[in-house]
Amino acid sequence: MNSNILKAHLALLGANLIYGINYIVAKGIMPHKIGPSAFVFIRLICATILFWLLKQAFAKEKISKTDWPRLILCGLLGAAANQLLFFHGINLTSPVDASIIMTIVPVLVLVFSFFLLKERFTKNKLLGIGIGSIGAVLLIVYGNNAGGTSSFLGNLCIFLNACSYGAYLVIVKPLMKKYSAITIISWVFLFGFIFMLPFGLPDFLNTNFSAFTLSTYLTIGYVVVFTTFFAYLFNVYALNFVSPSVNSSYIYLQPAINFILVSIYAFVLNHSQYQQDIDLIKIASCLLVVFGVYLISKKPK
């Protein structure tokens, strides 16, 4: 295997390990230490500063006037709505549920591509959309009936987050052909921060920072530095050497990582709130979504 290809796969592995761990790490301090909106405020302002420092050093590009509306919409969907829905969702529901629902993103990307980019459906893609959607809907509806930390409202927020992120991936695609990834993500995070400000600032100002422990600061640092900054850079690096379909296929690691972590938390570390977070319905939902996305990504003969 080419060394660059190997490095790309290692980067994708690293990014999805970070994402997989993030579900349970972020949930660990909400809401008793910090509210979801305040957490998003900290994440976006810190990440925006980091990306703009990177942009000033490596990507001093000018944006065409005609591209500003699309870029602003990307900020709304890809940063503000995406992050607010995710953190409010993970605050209310199980990390396992959230990681399974997020695997529906490739299905949603295909649906949005059909409506926005006029990409054609094949029989396999239609079947994959149907099966994957059944798995996601089953898990969302099951939320209130499941034990552990699952909830219908939390699962719905995660699904809407996946919709927002899927739409963002399709809408940002034309911009990726014209500008560097660093330029795009810098503006996306800046506009996202502006949209999020009315929701996040009041929650941030009401946060009791005196109650923060070292563990709280380490958790926030992990989400800002690893989940936001490094995970994105790993993905951008990998896209230089592998296709988007290979990139997106790594999302299947996230539920597996979560199953393992939640099991450790529940049965090794004795966190009783997680002991009912894994059951047959959730495993079946996960398999339906994964099989649906497999059909979508399967190349026709």
Folded structure, characterized:
The chain has 301 residues and is mainly alpha-helical. It has one domain. Helices cover 76% and strands 0% of the residues. It has 12 helices and no strands.
State the end-to-end CA separation.
26 Å
- The coarse overall form would be globular
SSE string: HHHHHHHHHHHH
**What's the β-strand tally?**
0
Query: What fraction of the residues are assigned to beta strands by DSSP?
Result: under 5%
Largest sheet: none
Tally of discrete structural domains: 1
Defining key terms:
mainly alpha; 301 residues
Would you summarize the structure shown here?
The chain has helices spanning 3-27, 36-58, 68-92, 95-102, 105-116, 123-142, 152-176, 181-205, 214-239, 244-249, 253-268, 280-297. With 301 residues, it is an all-alpha fold.
Q: What is the fold's blueprint, element by element?
A:
Blueprint: H1 3-27, H2 36-58, H3 68-92, H4 95-102, H5 105-116, H6 123-142, H7 152-176, H8 181-205, H9 214-239, H10 244-249, H11 253-268, H12 280-297
Helix pairs in contact: 1-4, 1-9, 1-11, 2-3, 2-8, 2-9, 3-7, 3-8, 4-7, 4-11, 4-12, 5-6, 5-7, 6-7, 6-12
